[in-house]
Amino acid sequence: MIPGVVNSNGTWNGAFGVLQREEADFTTTSAIFDEKLKISDYVRVYTMDQFIIVSLKPQELPRYLVIIRPFEAAVWVSILISIIVWAISLWALQKAYSSFATEEAMSLTTALFYSTATFLEDPPSRLPTNFPGQILVVWWLIVCLLLSTGYRSSLVAHLTVQGKTSPIDDYYDLVSKEKWQWGCDRIVLYGIAASYFKKSTTPVVKQIAKQVESVDIEAGLKKVLNGQYSLLTSRNRISTVIESKYANDYGQTPFYLSKGGYYLSPDLGWCFRKGAPIHHRFAQLANRLIEGGIIDYWLKDVMALNIKRNQKQQNEQNGKPDSKEIYDNVDDSKVILRMEHLIGVFLTFLLGIFIGCFVFLAEKVSGRFHWYKN
Predict the structure, then answer these.
(1) Count of Cβ atoms closer than 10 Å to residue 193 Cβ
(2) Same fold, 1-46+265-291 and 49-59+166-264
(3) What is the pLDDT of residues 117-174, one digit of tens each?
(4) Sign, Cα dihedral of 191, 34, 17, 207
(5) Tag placement on the chain: N or C end, fewer CB within 10 Å?
(6) Domain ranges of the chain
(7) CATH code 3.30.870.10 for 49-59+166-264
(8) Per-residue confidence (pLDDT) for residue 120, from 0 to 100
């Protein structure tokens, strides 16, 4: 049952509605807010789980765009404008020079071809005969040299390491994506996230809340796999599901979990109805377990057991053998040869090469002395 949300008249639905009507004594795993303290007594049990963003791992950028990727769009536009401006300047200079000289004026088309060919490192062999035109060409050659050098070095870098899309690590990355959608895990959305989105005054959080949709965790992950979609949920909850159902034999998954997270509430715990006689006994026991570190240890152990159980069920559905059966069938008497096992062989091989080289040099030296004696 979802924790529930409070209505305008002060009544709750979900688990807290049951608690408010005194149909139950307590509810487990709940975040704490002012509205909940009005109808229940809170006992801290767990540390707060981070609210994170789940997306696809960064994908490789299209390879056919690698030829233009070394420069940004603004740089390419600036280069195009520079080519046109330089061509017009050369054309105007040559036309002004031809007005009082016997030379034929250069056409604007020729000047544009001249400028473009120089930028493409194939300049015409014929230079302007007048000194101002030659100075203008020299400066353009220097500019083209700098641009081509920067382009080559950047192109080599892009060809060596393929670029990838930027990951989504926070709300600002999420809202900056074009044509992007996001949803929130239904259990989280109608519990702790409802009050968080309602009370937040941050503009980016308001934008997230305005466009967020409620989805089941499995349906949300499928939408993430289809692309241009992110899922908002708690880290421990989603990590258990992903590692159980989407991890391969090497533990690799197609999902990216944001590095940073958000704490929507100070802690997680149990909420007891007002006047419940068991409240104080549970509070004392919870404090002892927290101080002893038992709860954190238990939480990690439970997550590991859930992952193993879900993986076993997944393997049974797919017809794969259980990992325990695979490990039981491994022959421990056979050892796989690795580099550390072969280091002695390589050292012996190198020692033999050094001895052979020494003997060869000794034979050559002794042969020369024998020739001098004869």
Answers:
(1) 27
(2) yes
(3) 888 888 777 777 788 888 888 898 899 889 888 888 888 877 777 777 788 888 888 8
(4) negative
(5) C
(6) 1-46+265-291, 49-59+166-264, 63-160
(7) no
(8) 84
Q: Which residue has the tokens 């409620």?
A: 214
DSSP 8-state symbol, 67: T
pLDDT-based confidence at residue 337 (cuts at 50, 70, 90)? low
**Mean pLDDT of all residues in the chain?**
78
Banded pLDDT at 237 (limits 50, 70, 90):
confident
Percent over 70 (pLDDT), the chain: 85
> Above 80 in pLDDT, residue 296?
no
Of 116, 114, 111, the C-alpha closest to 80 is 116
pLDDT digits 0-9 by tens, 109-130: 888 888 888 888 887 777 777 8
Q: Is the dihedral of CA 194, 195, 196, 202 positive or negative?
A: positive
Cα-based angle 95, 127, 86 (whole degrees, multiple of 5)? 55
Nearest CA-CA partner of 314 in 250, 363, 244: 244
Q: Tell whether the model's pLDDT for residue 305 goes beyond 70.
A: yes
CATH of 1-46+265-291, one of 3.40.50.300, 1.20.1270.50, 3.40.190.10, 3.40.50.1580: 3.40.190.10
Question: At residue 101, what are phi and psi to the nearest 5 degrees?
Answer: -125, 170
With 0.85 as the threshold, say if the pTM is over it: no
Q: Which of 198, 227, 231 is nearest to 212 (CA)?
A: 231
Helix (H) or strand (E) holding 53: strand 51-56
- 211 and 182 Cβ atoms separated by less than 8 Å: yes
Q: Are 265 and 32 contacting, i.e. CB atoms less than 8 angstroms apart?
A: yes
Distances (CA, A) of 186 to 132, 214, 219, 266, 287: 73, 5, 11, 21, 30
